[in-house]
Amino acid sequence: MLFAEKLALFLMLCLACSAHSTLSGQACPDVELPATTSTSVELPLDTFEGVAMLDAAPPTPPPPQRILLIGDSEVLYLSWYFDRANVKQPNETVLFDSKPGTTIGTWNSIFVQEMSRYPRLDMVIILLGTNNFNFDFLQAHQSILDEVKRRNIKCLWVGPTDVKMKGWKNLHMTGPFIKEAVDGTCTYFDTEAANIELADGVHPTLAGGIKWLQLIWEAKDQKPAPN
After folding, report:
1. For residue 115, which phi and psi values (nearest 5 degrees)?
2. What is the CA radius of gyration of the chain?
3. Which of 36, 50, 164, 196 could serve as 208's disulfide partner, Cβ 3.0–4.6 Å?
4. pTM of the model
């Protein structure tokens, strides 16, 4: 007989005895719980389903992240739209460094110095190439990649928008140049393929900027392609 069955029998005897005592005025005889070799009771596995474990450790919060968006005027536009995009996570500090009108070659000569302003970074998001759309070659860029490697930080290189400028001859060449150059060091984000709405043929509209930021934030944790 299982312990639970024995316990039920014992309780029934107690109730019967109590009723007898009330009617007859006589005391109940002692009733012993039947001997058992074990007092453990097996309960179904789902008995405690949904019950919080009070001693469980709280989830570990994600570590703080300092993220820098750096580059040409596209960074300036994204800084204006950033709060509206609602992409920033509680553990993230996001910084912006924009120099409108600059090219990849410009930044190749100033990148190390400019990055020295940000000694503590976990990630850099580089927006460069839009002002290189009229070039038929890739400007010097190795100092940028070398600094990313030296710092051992995550890197996302955001390629140029789908520029539509009258008189520019080499449209849609810069992006592939950049992707091939940065693979292995930075993840490359293909802005042309993202179909970002542009206000002036170069810079994003508000809706385009919000969409761009949301896509960038989705892509920023991807690993760079092997070189």
Report:
1. -70, -20
2. 34
3. 196
4. 0.74
